[in-house]
Amino acid sequence: MTTFDLDWLYARQRFGVRPGLERVRALLGELGNPQAAFSAVLVGGTNGKGSTSAALAAILQAEGRRTGLFTSPHLTRFSERFVVNGIELPQGTVLEGLGRVGPVALRLDASFFEIITALACWLFAEAGVESAVMEVGLGGRLDATNALEPVLSVITSVGLDHTEILGDTLPQIALEKAGILRPAVRAITGAVGEALGVLQERARVLQTPLWRLDHELRMRATSRGWDGWTVDLEGPFGAFSFETPLLGAHGARNAALAAAAARALGVGSERVRRGSAAVRWPGRLERLRWRGGELLLDGAHNPDGAQALADTLRDLGAGRLPLIFGAAADKDLRGVAAALDAVASEVILTRALLSPRAADPEALRALFTVPTRVVPTPQAALEALPPGRAVAAGSLYLIGELRPLLLGEADEGRERWQ
User: Fold this and answer.
1) Overall number of domains in the chain
2) Residue 382 is part of a domain; what is its CATH number?
3) Helix H or strand E encompassing 296
4) What's the pLDDT at 327?
5) Both 24 and 158 in a single domain?
6) Which InterPro entries did the record assign (predicted)?
7) Share of the chain above pLDDT 70, in %
8) Containing domain of residue 332, as a range?
């Protein structure tokens, strides 16, 4: 007899990514279509979709809506993926939901991500969620979250990532991201260049009303250093200012997208201010203490993300810093390393122990021009850091193993593929 627990669920990661909506729609249907119990916002993009999702959820919560937030991947605990009103759902509640979803998922041969998307919908419906912010997992058109019918779609940025699945050009990837657009349903994007052109054309064909950052939406961001930004935002809803603790110029843009999304959903500017100031997004330009110094954690795992991290360190005047680096072998490692090499004083190479996708640290040496060291574990990488400020990047799975070490927490101890 099958036990529908996390061991069972995690074993399904090995079946890989299986794009398509038929199975997840069937799964949701047999569960009674729990997604119909709440209004959903889909947030897609290559980088920034997690922080934008977290910021929008914080704003909706500040307005008084009972708000769900579904994100992926998690850093340390599976239950991090399911948040209601800013609080991670208890593991017991999540496992209860898995016990309900699992038997149907097994019969339909649903994939890992299809299962957790349906699980999020079931959990949010059971929790009485009114509005759910759903981060798109991969692409958009064929991602499991696209089985939901959004009241608003947000596409943050478009860059080269997951090219083996989504295509190896920006227009191809942008077309996949555009799959979350709907006829006559407001959409907002921070995309630029040829990717924006693709989104605009798709919106025209679908008659999707589209707000574009730097066009219908205009922003000016004033740095508050390590405390974040003051953002002046103007759009069809008027003009107002707010503060965000998100770091980096890209953080300010993501905060602006979230604020504009909230205004499109009818949230007033004062609630936007309150929610924006309260947003927290672990593992993304997150500062944690370590032995009297500070480690800046950032899950920069593709070239655009790594360049944004490097630009942020320069803008903050951080100088060259020691870097802990480990990455998945299937990423553009050369592109990521090139961006980070320019801001690193030395590189401590390691790997996420729970990720079979992790690259061999020895193979990463040649990607850097600064001095490198190889250590066997994330704990050893922390021990190798010199005093002062440092940064860790390259893989969210690595960040997910470093973070509990810094906080004195236990990790899940389960193999991670997705």
Assistant:
1) 2
2) 3.90.190.20
3) strand 293-298
4) 93
5) yes
6) Folylpolyglutamate_synth (IPR001645), Mur-like_cat_sf (IPR036565), Mur_ligase_C (IPR004101), Mur_ligase_C_dom_sf (IPR036615), Mur_ligase_cen (IPR013221)
7) 98
8) 284-407
